[in-house]
Specification:
The radius of gyration is 14 Å and the shape is globular. The chain has a four-stranded antiparallel sheet with strand order 2-1-4-3. With 131 residues, the protein is an alpha+beta fold. Helix 1 packs across helix 4. The relative contact order is 0.24. It has one domain: Haem-degrading domain (Beta-Lactamase), CATH 3.30.450. The two termini are 27 Å apart. It is 40% helix and 21% strand.
Length: 131
């Protein structure tokens, strides 16, 4: 039997905290989601002023990254050549989601929504740096 790494709630809290610091520093009202390797929500935070739509989009970005093991920007770029990617259930090919790796293994994903896509990814990257 194989043993796998998995994110803990403490890990998710660290990731969210680091991402939140970046968002607050830049005064970006975003929602930040962390999911496990199967795309199930571990932690979600909606900052003051974030649009009501942002929590769901952040969760979908995180889920997309975790399941694909790639940044959502990769899927966004692929849509140009393969529009059928848009029909994949429960996924969103929009920049702002990053997979979370530990010792070469995907253990989850982080997704951010609320500002420009590049800025969403900047906040997600700050979350990864805290991990």
């Amino acid at each position: 039997m194989r043993t796998r790494f998995s994110l803990t709630l403490e890990d998710a809290n660290k990731i969210i905290s680091s991402a939140k610091s970046e968002a607050v520093k830049n005064q970006w009202p975003v929602s930040i989601a962390v999911v496990d390797e199967s795309g199930f929500l571990l932690h979600l935070e909606r900052l003051d002023g974030a649009s009501p739509a942002t929590p769901e989009i952040a969760m979908l970005k995180a889920r997309t990254s975790a399941l694909s093991r790639n940044p959502t920007k990769t899927a966004e770029d692929m849509v140009k050549d393969r529009p059928s990617i848009l029909s994949l259930p429960g996924r969103v090919p929009v920049q702002g989601g990053l997979p979370i790796f530990h010792q070469g293994e995907c253990v989850g994903g982080i997704g951010v929504s609320g500002v420009k896509s590049q800025q969403d990814e900047q906040v997600a990257q700050a979350g990864l740096a805290g991990f």
